[in-house]
Design a protein that fits this description.
With 214 residues, the protein is an alpha/beta fold. It has one domain: Glucose Oxidase, domain 1 (3-Layer(bba) Sandwich), CATH 3.50.30.80. The protein contains four helices and eight strands, in the order βββαβαββββαα. An eight-stranded mixed beta sheet has the order 1-2-6-5-4-3-7-8. Helix 2 links the parallel strand 4 and strand 5. It is globular and about 50 Å long. The chain starts with 10 loop residues before the first strand and ends in a 35-residue tail after the last helix.
Amino acid sequence: MTSMHSPRGGLRVLHGNLAAEGSVLKTGALLPEQLLFRGPARVFDREEYAVEALKAGEIAAGNVIVVRCEGPRGGPGMREMLTLTSMLSGMTIGAAVALVTDGRFSGGSRGLCVGHVSPEAAEGGMIGLLTDGDVIEIDVAGGRLDALLSSDEISERRARWSPPAPRFDKGWLARYAALVSNASRGAVLQPPAAYRSPADVPRESMLEPAMERP
C-alpha cells in the first residue's frame, strides 16, 4: 500500500503486569506525544468518584486516572465510561492525563484511554492492587501497560487483597456477576465449574434469590 492513512492500525492491544490478559487502546485518537506516558496514579473504584474528583480540581496534569471495579464482573456489566471521557475531552487537562480502566469506552472517546484491562479488579487483577501515587507507564509502541512496582511489593499487596463486595447480592445482576468472564475472554457467562450437569445443581440455586419459598 503506497498511500496509507497511517502506518499503524486504529487499535492497539497492550500487555504488561497491569494487563496480563490484555487491554485495548484506540491509537487513532492519540496525539504523537502520547505514545509514551508515565505518571502517578489516581485510583477510583467507580466512574462517579473519578468524575467528582475531576470537578473538584483534584486531578493534575501528568496523572494516570485509574477507574476500576467497572469490568464485566465488577460493574457488573462493563459500563461505558462516557461521562468521564466526555468531560476530559472538553477540558484543557484532557490531553495531559491518561485513563486506565477495566471498563470500556465509546467509539467517540479520544486521548490516551486504555480500557478492557484484564484481569479486572473484581477477580484479583493487578489493577485492583493499585494505590494513589503508583507510577504507571503506558508504552504504545512497545505494547506495554505496567505499574512500576517491585515483584516483592506486588506479592505483599496480593497477599493482603480481598475481593470487593459485590454490588448486588440477589437477582439477575448478582447471578451475572458471579458467572461472567472477564473482557479478554469475551465477557460471556460461564457455568460454575462445580456443576457438571443439571442433576448436580441444587434446587435452591435455581430459584430467584428474591423469591420466597412456599
